Fold this protein.
Amino acid sequence: MIKIVLHHTCKSSYTLYKALRGAPGVEFEMAGVPYFPYLRRYVLSVPAVFKNGELVLLDPVEPDDVIALRDGKTQKELDIDEAVENFVRGIMASQALLATVMLYKSVKPVLDPDLVSVLSRARYHLQERKTPRILERIKEKEGELLSEHWEHLVKLLTFGLVREMYWLGIDVGEVEKSHVKMWILAKATLGRLGLPHPKPAVPNEVADAVYTTLRESGRRYLDKVTEEQSIILGDADFLSLIQAY
């Protein structure tokens, strides 16, 4: 049995649900409250796809990925560099992981073998024996990966900030650089867990880049978020999955 965990604010969740609604052997669960059980199961982005209770995929997920998983047709020889690129795409698709990487300007805080096996798709392709090699390659290429994708990482993080500004009714012009720093620090941590040491701080390079992108593109991002959320929140069928608490 395939179970897909969704979130009621997530465009990727919405798109996958609309594509697979009614598919045999596929069921959906809207992440609800309490939410700590989802953290325990490594639901660090959505949609999150489980097969027989085991986490196999995190966003990005295509409908064909799910059908192949359901039908047991995912095994293939996974190239290590392809796995690394899958890992990077997984970081980009998760605001929690992305914020952590940007806070530390490093992927090291997210290099847990179980998480890497999912993000790299080693587990999906039944190639988990390659996870140690994938981990080593990520460590070897860390500087190159961050440099190559830096601009896109900044834009994605800024878009996530704008989405939360939309929910809270905060205008782009109201945000100062100090607010950006506070948001990144809060977004990347859980209580004291994840706070950099010895004194918690956000790299100026990261805060400056996000603030500049917000000033340059924030209103355009806000228009996109408004359109995205209006479509999702106007779909009664999708929202009917929300669990009461």
Residues 2-75+234-239 form a domain with the Glutaredoxin fold (CATH 3.40.30).
